Amino acid sequence: MSQKDAKQKSFVDGLQISKRHWKKLWVHCLLLIMVFIIGFPLIYTFAISTQSLQEVIARPTLKISEHALENYRGAWVRSDMGRLLFNSIFVALASTAGKIIMAILSAFAIVFFDFRFKSVAFWTIFITLMLPVPVRIVSTYQVISDLGWLNSYVGLIIPLMASATGTFFFRQFYRTIPNELVEAAQIDGAGPMRFLWSILLPNSWANIAALFVVLFIFGWNQYLWPLMITHTKEMRVVVVGIRSLIPGGGELLPEWNIVMAAAMIALLLPVLVIITMQKWFVELMIEPEK
Predict the structure, then answer these.
(1) If DSSP codes are grouped into helix, strand and coil, which group holds residue 159?
(2) CA distance 256 to 264
(3) What is the rounded distance in angstroms from the CA atom of residue 2 to the CA atom of residue 191?
(4) Which stretches in the chain have pLDDT values below 70?
(5) Model pTM?
(6) In sequence order, which ranges of the chain are alpha helices (DSSP H)?
(7) Is residue 187 a contact partner of residue 138, using CB atoms and an 8 Å limit?
(8) Angle of helix 118-127 relative to helix 81-112, nearest 10 degrees?
(9) C-alpha span between 209 and 201 (Å, rounded)
(10) Which pLDDT score is estimated for 185?
(11) 137 and 228 in contact (C-beta within 8 Å)?
């Protein structure tokens, strides 16, 4: 290779490296902008939660003030935050566990059992995605009222347990199980429940953990249904409890610093769940693309 050709090749390589460098820089800048747009409300909420009411009324800024401890203590006491968190944790965990158990059993039956109208059964379950609780809230409220479950944990949890999302994800995962594994289990004398318990579940923990994140956040953020069927402070969940800190009628000025402090407290547990299980959550999101 001549010296001229070597120089041309070096120039082209340098140009390609420069293009890749600018492309990465542009992607990272775009990501930083998106993170700022998404994270700005959270930063703003935290800043207000540390300020006094006078500072919020005068001119709310992003400045971190020295009233954080006072505001958070006030939010905890005035909203009975301990009881609210207990109710939300119990409802979210119970509804999530119920959804996952029902999803595993229904997907197991649809994939590994041969019966009439199997496809009809699956699509009937899947169509319920178009009927979330807010759509059928009047009829659901009537049923819960007739059963005497108003203002109770059972009434809060049972309507949230039916979900087609988990059934769909577990069905897609179980369809990837090799037939050789199923046949080997049958030759070994494993019955359906033993096959489920000893083979499927150990291979499903990543999916269970990832789905747990989605369903737990969904249960934690429920507002309309708990607001409708609970009428005592003892049964309120944290989202409804935060709303109760805002006076109605417009006669009193809302103490937004206390409200924002309560919102930040309510945010801690969902964030902790996401951080702890983000690995499995990402795996679940990319699984359909494999």
Answers:
(1) helix
(2) 12
(3) 74
(4) 1-19, 248-251, 281, 283-290
(5) 0.82
(6) 3-49, 53-58, 68-78, 81-112, 118-127, 137-146, 153-161, 164-174, 179-187, 192-195, 205-220, 224-229, 238-243, 256-286
(7) no
(8) 160
(9) 12
(10) 81
(11) yes
